Amino acid sequence: MLKSMLMKAVATATLSTGLALGTWASAQAVELQFFFPVAVGGKAAETIQSLTDEYVANNPDVKIDAVYSGSYQDTIAKVITASRGGTPPQLSMALSADMFTLIDEDLIVPFDDYLKTDEDKAWLEGFYPAFMENSQTGGKTYGIPFQRSTPVMYWNKEAFKEAGLDPETPPATWEELVEFGKKLTKKDANGNVTQWGVRIPSSGFPYWLFQGLTTQNDVILANSEGNKTNFDDPKVAEALQYMVDLSTKHGVMEPGIIEWGATPKAFFERQAAIMWTTTGNLTNVRDNAPFEFGVAMLPAHKRRGAPTGGGNFYLFKGASEEQLTAAANFVKWITGPEQAAKWTIATGYVAPRPDAWETEAMKTYAADFPPATVARDQLEFAVAELSTYQNQRVTTIFNDALAAAITGQKDAATALKDAQAQADAILAEYR
User: Fold this and answer.
1) What CDD domains does the record tag this protein with (predicted)?
2) Are residues 248 and 338 located together in one domain of the fold?
3) In total, how many domains does the chain have?
């Protein structure tokens, strides 16, 4: 009896000690708040949460509250509001193009201070150079690529067959996009279009998809210092006129503003035979398209080309050194080969480092689903996404100019000239 009582007392004491140690360890854990946006359909949000949970499970000295913060626009607004209110997140994903805005607002710190070992430096050098163009400035690294993308072209192979086109051969040039678009546009007996040849969204991120056209026309919209735009360049006007002409002259694209968010659904419902959207929609399309589809680089004109896009990780001021170190360690882990491979397979976003593509999971995925490599291969021709100081204001001005031309309120050259004047007024102080 006495022996039993002693064993019970020892067990109770051991349990109490264990609980106390667990409580102490929990109390000592570094706590991080992490904002993340999701701009596409599919499994992005649940994959981010799953990866975060996996890290926390394996690193009990860190607690991460992953907060889904809405769209990219919602996220940047919430980050700025929280920071001004004295409660910034320690870590957030935000548009790579918002780097200059975050620097100008004095909200972020560079990663360089938390990458001190040779291994850390090798890790930093392991990202695709095209993605780093929107991640570094002034010799500092402010953003780490993760939720990154390029726009790509999707086409309905069944619609191509019905139109007498080779279902394995997408349009490779601007001229072919028009030519194919005419064959793919279908009308009913009353002359109403039931299927458009082409769909290029002009809401949500109009400047980004339009930048595909400007890059193909061999013109850059802004300099790498983020303080000068080239909106009124004749090559930009030529690209905008081409986009307008797809509707007004060639009749292969729906007139007016075309919604970003509704574009995949319109593609699935055969309202358009070709669409331009982010590679981040790749898994969404694979899971939901009721027909065989293809994925290709955007068509060329004077050159091939597309902008990079999507989100970077940023570290925020107001956090302790311990929190910033913990956040940087989490970023190093989640961008590692195995984790980046999980992310790409689940979403269609481009794994931001070549080593991710060398994992067995990615080799198997790419062999089984070759379209996954299109955006990666397009990085060879990619340019930095439009990004300037006061980026939200400048891109809004540019988007408004695009809308004015698309809706016929202004001709392309006038709309762009007016936008350039407004951008100059904002950016002059940063030169």
Assistant:
1) PBP2_UgpB
2) no
3) 2
d(CA 272, CA 185): 8
Distance CA 108, CA 80 (A): 11
Residues 126 and 136 in one domain: yes
Q: Which helix (H) or strand (E) holds 43?
A: none
Is there a contact between 386 and 307 (Cβ–Cβ < 8 Å)?
Answer: yes
Radius of gyration for the alpha carbons in the chain, expressed in angstroms and rounded? 25
Whether residue 2 has pLDDT greater than 60? no
Are 127 and 155 within one domain?
no
Do residue 102 and residue 230 come from a single domain? no
For 166-221, how does the pLDDT look when each residue is reduced to its tens digit (9 = 90+)?
Answer: 999 999 999 999 999 999 999 999 999 999 999 999 998 899 999 999 999 999 99
Q: Measured between alpha carbons, how far is 197 from 345 in angstroms, rounded to an integer? A: 29
399 shares its domain with 362: no
pTM summary value: 0.85
Q: How many CB atoms lie within 10 A of CB 15?
A: 10
Whether residue 98 is found in the same domain as residue 205: no
Average pLDDT over residues 137-166: 96
